[in-house]
């Protein structure tokens, strides 16, 4: 069986991951903003006697090395030498997309140009002349509509054919004669030292002083000579060489663009432009964003409450049936472990799964429609005032789901300082694990009419604190000016039901997997701590009670008692463990479903105490995995421990102020 390695590369928002999913059967996340694919993904597709290894690379705009995702993509293309490079471009925006194409052609390797979203181009009255494009670039060109699976089979057939014939190598665009002469001079310096097919791109990147290329080039190469040539060129053009190359590439693209396609009505506004006049309005844009967020939380609470009740009743039936069928005299300790530990712990978390599903349903619609990119654009003005830009908000949006992929999504940010600040601030955004806890506590302390407002306020407080923390860090630890923010606003589109379903299904599986592993494990641990020593049935005299009482003086000013203390300690592993722990404690008191658990919480704590608890959960670190990924992405234990420390201290201070000030008025 013949093995063929195919690399998918292109700008963000061009449909690479959608194509990858269709080809491999994988379910990688897709969205209308950069940072979704932050590392290369690999999958296998077998066709008759051919085995295709398909690699989905991060979305990039050029073969530069300004951000982590660009480094990953470029390193693979240069070092791994795929048999075929499929360059996926937006057929409706070739001026932007073809910039990367011109660089890929300089590799001297087989390239297949895939014009995705051809339907959008046609709706904009853009007729693409694929034959002209093939002739001018001397590569194979194919069209497709990835989200509707149109053209996928033809794409893979052409890729296999190209790999066998070793054609579609493309043509190098010609720069002006002076620039071409000096490129040739640089090529002569290493003519026998590197892969002959990519010598032109290497030469250009050396002239641009690309750090990755300089680091990996043969040590015997005289880089001083390259530097001399660079100085000669910059003196002639009176501009940085990277800009010179960029300008000449764009000139070439614009020169062929009118022959590739023509717009019938050049000045006609399309549907996305008209919608953006309202949704990104400088005055109304932000209130509209807040309205969408509020409606999301309203939807999460109202529709999610019904299936939550049904699931709670199912677990209540299971518990009562098992209790009646299993006499207390038979293996009483094991009986308690199963009923009061395992079932009580897991059920207290699983019952809130519908709320999580509703949240991801709303977020998926906003993402897939193209609105979330606008949210980053809307917030750019605010982010700039605190020293960052709208790009920092994109990982924060991902943080509504989980902090771990949100932190990984910072790889597309060019500035290391901005990236580090964003990583440190992301845990302040309320993730789905924190939402689970809020879904238990808010109905316990607030009337139904106020519940969406309270949830919205918690998310808003988290975002406000993140902005405040970023501002403080920018003024103290990470001084410097923010990078300019340039981001493509993709066209609005009807959300794909398939994409939404896959997104929700994947998140639900992750949620249930966590319930069956981490939460189950900690439920058993906390059951043991609440059961032993078995000399007394009073849980306050158990090991758990002793731990809680030992920490009581520390947390008493916040309105917490020993039960809350032990649950908070457990939530360090994962925020959902807080619910599991509370479930274990109150299961010992023979309470039943979620409603009775919430009733018990309402009897034991005031509304002010409940809000103080939620503030601490909101601000403290989401889980151990967040600290671990911070360590990995920053490459330093120092920043991981700093994040853990400052979040814990900030959570304590905010909860303390809320409870103490609130106590004056309540």
How would you characterize the overall build of this protein?
- The protein contains 31 helices and six strands.
- The protein is of the alpha/beta class and 666 residues long.
- The protein has two domains: 1-268, P-loop containing nucleotide triphosphate hydrolases (Rossmann fold, 3-Layer(aba) Sandwich), CATH 3.40.50; 287-478 and 507-665, no CATH class.
- It has a six-stranded mixed sheet, sandwiched between helices.
- The longest helix has 41 residues, at 285-325.
- The radius of gyration is 29 Å and the shape is elongated.
- The N and C termini lie far apart (75 Å).
Task: Quickly describe the structure.
With 666 residues, this protein is of the alpha/beta class. The protein has helices at 16-24, 68-80, 94-104, 118-123, 130-137, 152-165, 177-189, 199-207, 211-216, 223-237, 241-260, 271-279, 285-325, 332-350, 353-369, 371-385, 393-398, 403-408, 416-425, 432-445, 451-475, 497-516, 518-531, 543-550, 552-555, 562-570, 577-588, 594-604, 607-619, 624-634, 637-665, and strands spanning 2-10, 41-47, 50-56, 84-90, 111-116, 140-143.
Q: What shape does the CA trace take?
A: elongated
Number of strands: 6
Number of structurally distinct domains: 2
Average predicted confidence as pLDDT: 81
> What is the radius of gyration computed over CA atoms, rounded to a whole number of angstroms?
29 Å
Class derived from helix and strand content: alpha/beta
User: What share of the residues lie within helices?
Assistant: 55-70%
Largest sheet, if any? 6 strands, mixed
Strand content: 5-15%
Low-pLDDT residue spans:
29-37, 588-592
Number of helical segments with 4 or more residues: 31
Amino-to-carboxy terminus distance: 75 Å
- Reading side by side through the largest sheet, how are the strands ordered? 2-3-1-4-5-6
């Amino acid at each position: 069986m013949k093995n063929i390695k195919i690399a998918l590369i292109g700008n963000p928002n061009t449909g690479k991951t959608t194509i990858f999913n269709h080809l491999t059967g994988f379910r990688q996340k897709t969205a209308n903003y950069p940072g979704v694919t932050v590392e290369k993904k690999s999958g296998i597709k077998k066709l008759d006697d051919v085995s295709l290894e398909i690699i989905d690379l991060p979305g990039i705009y050029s073969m530069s090395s300004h951000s982590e995702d660009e480094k990953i993509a470029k390193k693979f293309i240069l070092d791994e030498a795929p048999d075929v490079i499929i360059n996926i471009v937006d057929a409706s925006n070739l001026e932007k997309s073809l910039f990367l194409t011109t660089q890929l052609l300089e590799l001297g390797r087989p390239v297949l140009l895939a014009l995705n979203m051809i339907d959008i181009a046609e709706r904009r009255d853009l007729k693409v002349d694929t034959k002209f494009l093939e002739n001018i670039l001397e590569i194979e060109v194919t069209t497709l509509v990835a989200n509707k699976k149109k053209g996928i089979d033809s794409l893979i057939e052409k890729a296999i054919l190209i790999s066998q014939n070793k054609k579609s190598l493309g043509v190098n665009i010609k720069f002006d004669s002076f620039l071409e002469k000096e490129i040739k001079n640089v090529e002569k310096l290493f003519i026998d030292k590197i892969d002959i097919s990519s010598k032109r791109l290497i030469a250009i990147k050396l002239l641009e002083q690309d750090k990755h290329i300089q680091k990996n080039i043969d040590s015997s190469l005289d880089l001083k000579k390259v530097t001399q040539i660079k100085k000669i060129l910059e003196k002639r053009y009176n501009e940085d060489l990277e800009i010179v190359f960029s300008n000449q590439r764009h000139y070439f693209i614009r020169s062929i663009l009118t022959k590739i396609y023509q717009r019938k009505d050049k000045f006609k506004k399309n549907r996305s432009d008209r919608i953006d006049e309202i949704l990104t309005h400088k005055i109304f844009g932000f209130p509209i964003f807040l309205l969408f967020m509020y409606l999301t939380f309203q939807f999460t609470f109202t529709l999610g409450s019904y299936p939550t009740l049904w699931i709670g009743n199912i677990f209540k039936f299971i518990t009562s049936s098992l209790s009646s069928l299993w006499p207390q005299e038979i293996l009483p300790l094991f009986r308690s472990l199963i009923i009061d530990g395992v079932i009580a712990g897991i059920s207290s978390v699983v019952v809130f799964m519908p709320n999580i599903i509703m949240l991801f349903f709303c977020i998926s619609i906003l993402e897939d429609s193209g609105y979330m990119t606008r949210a980053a654009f809307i917030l750019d003005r605010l982010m700039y005032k605190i020293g960052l830009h709208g790009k920092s908000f994109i990982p924060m949006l991902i943080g509504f789901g989980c902090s771990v992929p949100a932190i990984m999504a910072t790889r597309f940010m060019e500035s290391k300082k901005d990236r580090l600040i964003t990583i440190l601030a992301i845990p302040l955004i309320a993730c789905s694990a924190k939402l689970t806890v809020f879904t238990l506590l808010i109905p316990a302390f607030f009337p139904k009419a106020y519940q969406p407002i309270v949830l919205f306020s918690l998310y808003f407080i988290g975002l406000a604190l993140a902005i405040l923390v970023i501002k403080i860090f920018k003024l103290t630890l990470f001084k410097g000016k923010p990078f300019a923010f340039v981001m493509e606003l993709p066209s609005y589109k009807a959300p794909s039901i398939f994409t939404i379903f896959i997104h929700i299904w994947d998140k639900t599986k992750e949620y249930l997997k966590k319930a069956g592993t981490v939460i189950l494990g900690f439920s058993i641990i906390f059951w043991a701590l609440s059961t032993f020593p078995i000399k007394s049935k009073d849980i306050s005299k158990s090991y758990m009670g002793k731990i809680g009482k030992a920490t009581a003086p520390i947390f008493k000013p916040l309105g917490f008692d020993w039960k809350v203390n032990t649950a908070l300690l457990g939530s360090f592993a994962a925020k959902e463990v807080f619910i599991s722990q509370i479930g274990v404690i109150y299961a010992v008191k023979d309470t039943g479903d979620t409603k009775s658990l919430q009733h018990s919480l309402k009897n034991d704590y005031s509304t002010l105490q409940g809000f103080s608890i939620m503030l601490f959960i909101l601000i403290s670190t989401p889980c151990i995995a967040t600290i671990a990924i911070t360590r990995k992405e920053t490459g330093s234990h120092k920043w991981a421990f700093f994040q853990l420390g400052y979040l814990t201290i900030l959570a304590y201070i905010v909860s303390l102020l809320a409870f103490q000030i609130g106590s004056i008025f309540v």
